[in-house]
Amino acid sequence: MSSIDYSVQDLLIRPADHEETSADMKIIARTARLSGHFSVMLGEVRPGEILGFHSHQNEDQHMYIIDGELHFEVGGAGGLRFTAGAGDNVLKPRSSSHGFWNLTDKTVHYIETSTQDGFETFVDSRSDGLMAMLGGATEELGMSFETDRTLEVMKEFGLTGIAGANANPEELIRDPQFHEAMRTNETLREMVFYLGGAALKDKFQGLIGKLPPLPGRGR
């Protein structure tokens, strides 16, 4: 007589069972299913996108590259740079700054495992809005974001998008927290205009109001 207390449904997770989120991640298994120890997710990085630089104070992370190729930087400017391809595994220790980007013409898919439930909570919070997601991560989840470094690497490689956030201009324009961030955060403002070009700059200025100039730039 078997002593197993599980059913096949408890143990086998098919692609159709992956849980969609408001971010660019699908949840394969939540921490609650794994005794609170770690979560498993499926992520993607489209061509020309970067997963912006950040760090986690509470989570260690692991990535398995399913297909394609990603470029990594760990440890910030002057840190480690390397390329990981299909079949490779990448470790991202807690407190280490990390970001990765796709220089190919094909979308890269990867498996992400994260200890504890902080990253899971972060992904879930995307449904509350992008700025609420980022603010909550900084205040409650021990995450920090390095927008300056992200913008530097985007310019270095001509990257044209941000992976993970799944944001669109219409949503951002309706978000009061984003309006305030655009007024007060020069680097965020420069990144938005870098991504969207002059047309988006005019659209935001018309809807949000007159923005202060970026250093060394006219309006």
UniProtKB/TrEMBL annotation:
Record-linked SUPFAM superfamilies: RmlC-like cupins
Sequence ranges assigned to domain Cupin type-2 in this UniProt record: 43-112
Pfam families: Cupin_2
UniProt superkingdom: Bacteria
InterPro entries tied to this protein: Cupin_2, RmlC-like_jellyroll, RmlC_Cupin_sf
Stated name of the protein: Cupin type-2 domain-containing protein
Source organism: Plesiocystis pacifica SIR-1
